[in-house]
Amino acid sequence: MLTHGRRLVEAVLADPRLRLVYRPHPRTGASRADFETADHQIRALVRRGGGIVDTGPDPVETFASADILVADVSAIAHDWLPTRRPLVVTDVESPASVVARTRLADVVPRLTVAQLPEVAELIHHHATQDPVRDERVALEEYYFGDPALGTGTERFVAACLEVIAERDAELDAKGRR
User: Fold this and answer.
1) Is 108 exposed, middle or buried (0-12, 13-18, 19+ CB in 10 A)?
2) Among 67, 61, 87, which residue's Cα sits nearest to residue 75?
3) CB 52: neighbour CB atoms within 10 A?
4) 110 - beta bridge partners?
5) How many Å apart are CA 44 and CA 9, to the nearest integer?
6) Measured distance CA(83)–CA(147) in Å, rounded
């Protein structure tokens, strides 16, 4: 937010091809005053520029109207994967931060501070061309398993039965069952 936020918002609002929906994390600024200040400034900028500030309870509703997500390295980036729409992740610029190497980080485009002057073009390109679509769609199965309806429930039930069987075996070994 501090490194990318304002410049990213200004660039998107200035490009007539793009529409901005700003959805801050509900706890943005709760533990750091500089993040709270930046969030308030960005909200005001978005509203003045004709964008939308979404603070509703369900991000999935926001997802329904978005063609692309630009997010930080957070759970929301993973939550976006089942939409199968383009995703850009902001790169952490703080030397004190350590970012784990993940498949998500290896596949999706990373937005650095140096790229901010061209961010509107980058967003438009990924929203319209989606050059890493196949690799990103494969991430959905990597992180969540088979996306077919019902398979998640099947995996959950199988895992529960496995744990129950392990527990029963331990109880039998101890003569407690």
Assistant:
1) buried
2) 87
3) 13
4) 89
5) 11
6) 11
User: The tokens of 139 are what?
Assistant: 């991430």
Query: Which residue matches tokens 């993973």?
Result: 78
- Per residue in 43-89, pLDDT (tens digit) is 999 999 999 999 988 888 888 889 999 998 788 999 999 999 999 99
What does the pLDDT look like over 104-162, one tens digit per residue? Answer: 989 999 999 999 999 999 999 999 999 999 999 999 999 988 878 788 888 889 999 99
List all residues 6 or more positions away from 13 whose beta carbon is below 8 Å from its beta carbon.
20, 45, 46, 49, 50, 51
Q: Biggest alpha carbon distance in the chain?
A: 72
Quickly list H helices, 15-150.
33-48, 59-64, 75-80, 103-107, 119-129, 133-144
Rounded to whole angstroms, what are the CA distances from 132 to 55, 58, 136?
29, 27, 6
Is 63:44 a contact under the CB 8 Å cutoff? no
- The dihedral of CA 38, 44, 49, 52: what is its sign? positive
